Amino acid sequence: MIKVKKKILILIPILSIIMLGAFIYSSNVNSKIRIGDAAPNINLPNTIGQNIELESLRGNYVLVDFWASWCGSCRKENPGLVRTYLKYKDLKFKGNYGFTIFSVSLDSDAEVWKKAIRNDKLSWASHVSALKKWDCPAALSYGVSALPSTFLIDPNGKIIATDLNSTSLDLELQKLLAN
Description:
The chain is α/β, with parallel strands linked by helices. It has helices at residues 2-28, 72-88, 110-119, 137-142, 166-176, and strands at 43-45, 51-53, 60-67, 98-105, 126-129, 149-153, 159-162. The protein folds into two domains: 1-30; 43-176, Glutaredoxin (3-Layer(aba) Sandwich). The strands form two sheets. Strands 5-4-3-6-7 form a five-stranded mixed beta sheet, covered by helices on one side. β1 (43-45) and β2 (51-53) form a beta hairpin. α2 packs parallel to α5 (166-176). The longest helix is centred in the first third of the chain and has 27 residues, at 2-28.
């Protein structure tokens, strides 16, 4: 009986440490936004310092695109994103809804960010950035841990698709077009 008590007394602190470690780990992991979730609002300054809210685009399908000028994969994807935007920006979707893009940059230098927008011909109106790289509040609220990261939002503000490249975005938008 004494041997069993000693083993239990030894196991209790070990199990406590394991449980505490699991709790700390789970509280530090960003819970990524899932399909069906309400899209967290984003309210950040645009290229001229005026705040734009994601919610101001309600009533449209909106692609929230997290990117950065220093992200090679983002820059390679931008031409396809531009083609997709130009293809769908003036079309009507089921329910008479439109389509636009809301770009959130994880840059820290405003001039470099603006130059990338110009060079990549990102012609949509909504470009925002906290200029804090990975400490961007929007990236944190969406659980963004890699770039590019995208979230397609329906006109009611619900996430309907994630992690879309320009090809998969095109396919999603094709399904939503009014006939």
